[in-house]
Amino acid sequence: MKCFLHIAVLATLPLLAQAAPQIHIGSFYDILDSDKSVKVKVVHNTGDATAFVKVEILEILYAADGSSKEVSLSLDGSSVTRNGLIASPARLIIPSRGSQRIRLVYMGERSQERYFRLRFVPVVPEEEDKFAISSTGREEYKEALSAGINVMTGFGSIVIVHPKESHYDTRLDDRAQQYEVRNDGNALVRLEKFKDCAKDNLDCLAPFALYVRPGHSHTFSKQLGHTYTFELIEGASKRTIKVQ
User: Which domain holds residue 214?
Assistant: First the structure.
């Protein structure tokens, strides 16, 4: 496979003038349920140039006051510690109009929920990046992309690893002017397809999603004449909630 990709990269270099890669990573949230340790993610390149993409992993650590910090788990950009998340491969060579799969593998304890950020960063390959491309190929690629390199865009996504013994305890508090969703369980709950509609559901805002971490809550104000609906997802369980 590496040989094929190496040949494909070199074969496209003469056609890359004024071109640049454009990657798409699909969902920005990926969840590993309590019984899962592996997930496959597909990264697409819809641009006109081959994409060289580095995958970086950081763990998101939340403090008691809700603040957070991110700690890098990458070791030389190729792997992570044994108590964390691994992306394999951590170096992607994606031809123009092509795609590549990566495996997200969690290795570590699961006494509580953990959160990770993946960064997919398009780069011009350097020798230390360990991409399967020759020094000549690297220089030709740099020259071909010289006009478009500044517009290459990277993306980030979040991976949520549920604890091994997940339990859900979601409290719904419908008050006169407010509605609260409180998560008293130990795993994140999702509010999908959240809709705020007025005028007998004829005037609705675009639906969106909300995520409530364990020990936290989400409260929204209720407006007269509005109807609010969302899907409350607790692991494999899903139910529709309607608030008026």
Answer: 170-243
Do 134 and 186 lie in a common domain? no
Domain of 95: which CATH number?
Answer: 2.60.40.10
Q: For the CA atoms of the chain, what is the radius of gyration?
A: 22
Question: Which of 106-115, 116-125, 183-192 has the largest mean confidence?
Answer: 183-192
pTM for the structure as a whole: 0.79
Pairing mode, if any, of strands 114-122 and 51-62? antiparallel
Which long-range contacts link 76-83 to residues 24+ away (Cβ below 8 Å)? 77/129, 77/130, 78/130, 82/107, 82/108, 83/107, 83/108, 83/109
Judgement on whether residues 24 and 118 belong to the same structural domain of the protein: yes
Owner of token pair 């997940």:
166
Averaged pLDDT score across all residues of the chain: 83
